[in-house]
User: Fold these one by one.
Assistant:
Number 1:
Amino acid sequence: MVDFNIPWKFLSKDWGKTLKFIALGALMLLIPFVGMLAFSGLSIRLISDAIKKKNEIPEVFDDFGENIIKGLKVFALDMLVGLVFLVIFGLLIGGQVAAIIGTGLNSGSDEAVVGAMFAVMMTILPITLGLIIVAAIIMPGLRGNFAKEDKFSALFNFGKAINLVFGNIGAFLTMILIQIVYGLIVSLITGVIGFTGIGFLLIPPLTTLISSKLIGEWYAEVEKK
């Protein structure tokens, strides 16, 4: 059962390893592109460990090359999903937005232009929100698939990812809610030291530890049912 204490127990088991991961993770992310890929692959490693009920925080730069490869595969998924969403976005509102803007510009009045831009925003926002929700639903399952099976094809098993969510919607919503709460707590804590610039560098490694642990625990729970 995914519960609120899981991330805290994971982080507090060995604060030395936790702080080391956060510091070196921030350093890794400063490496242009390659660092981002390696860190993405490292997040898959964390999910995999959580699925296997391993409770140890890995060394950041262990298996660096392997993590880059995994990160590339996740990047390919993100690009594909992003492209699909872009096409859907264009098909749903492209013509409508163009018509709204055209009407506003043709009217020749500032009020009409402002009204047209407001109408564009009101058209874009719900579609964008809908696509974000879709991504939030499918991405944890897809990453969990990949983390467990270690196969590129597992990243595209959308059917299984969706079934994992709707097969036990309560567990999924609990996992998402816990992530949100921890995210707010992390933002508040790092915001205190954010004026130095250091706080904002620490957010991605810390939130990755939390979210990856939760996704792995959630996946292990619902996948076996």
Number 2:
Amino acid sequence: MTLGLATVYRMTVMPSALGVPAFRSAAALTLAAACVLGCGAAAAPTLRVSGPLTEEHAHAFENGADFIDNPSLLEGSWLRTWQEDLDRRVSLADAVAFVTVSTLRHDVDLEQRETYRVIAHVDDALHGTPPEEISLVVRQSEEGFSSVEGNEQRILDHRFVVFIKWAQERGQIVPRWHLSPLSDGVARRVRSLVQRTHAPEDQRQRVIIRDSGGAGSADDDTDDEP
């Protein structure tokens, strides 16, 4: 019985045929994984909901993406809106991380309702303790769906900043999220904002974020490399 349709976009390398050497390699990997699981692998981080999901949270973490990789090209109200949205996401987020998208899955159920699942590997956690791999889901009825639909090639195998707000849905803790391109300008501003907003008081550095002369520029001592 067919339960629906699924299209999976994944960056991977597959052998042309599963010969004996490949089989042995796969078996070895399976045994190694079993050993890790049985010998005390590091526990996954405990996810906690910090509070009820407000209207402000729902708008900031709309389960979607933007593709503004060069904010210095923005001017006037466009620039102010981008800055305010980024600042809000950093301040409200339970987790902020640099990630690489490895898989993008598109599902259609029997009632023709569409869902995208973006699988991302965490390269660098700037705030909070996200798991090493995050599944980011957006449904057709949600605000961010249109930003993912049709943009598979702009998302798959690209690096982003992910902003996460943990929420309780259907008895499970799930991420409400937003993705922004991991360009130098975006990474610089995000690092500065995280340092200013979430670092312990005794570890905070003097951070100056210039709102004129190009978004994302900052004077601080943090590492600007994404």
Number 3:
Amino acid sequence: MARYLAIAQDYSGAESGYEDVLLDIMNEVNVVPVDERLDDRDVGRGLLDEVLSECGGKQTRPLHHVAIGWIAVHRLGHLRAKGEAAPATALAEKRLDDWLLGKSLMSAFREFSGSESLGYADALLVSIMVTFEDTLAPYSKMTIAQAMKEVLVDPRVVEYLQIHRHEDVLYLNKEQLERLVSALLLAVIIQLKAKSKLNDTTAATALQMARQILSAAEAAGYRVEVMLRGLEE
């Protein structure tokens, strides 16, 4: 990992800083898999079980490899060349594309899953996580309705959620939404734990927002506009 970041530092033109990024990455890696690394010293047992269930416990395909892929790339935006003022998320997105890291992830995930389509979908999910990793963060300044309005118009999210128009109504895919929400919740839980900020309050807030999205989607019959209106109520 140190070698990877040293190369990334050279490519980015940053004069220093990869040691701090390495520490952040290792702190996050040490949280995965969350079902083995979290316990009731972090969050009360009942709440912890609920969080772990929503973080992928209900998924037929685990999200551990997706989490590791996201951890490996989302901190790259903190390697800055002199005078580089773009937000860290924007820099990480750019490097994911410019350095063809998305293709590398897709290849690794394809080998892991044994499926071209699943490998592509999980690499796409990592890209989405890099951009929207704070959607369910308890410290977010946006409401969940505002955040989801931004999420759902992103072309990658449109593709991932298979958003399509039928009889002049936009629909999204239930299973893909559940996996996306699980991944976004997982990203927040990992960051909170790595920063020693995971507790009953922060975990419950993130979990509540995740469930708001899923409940609004179900109540809307997975119609996008109706779902967003439900989140605003």
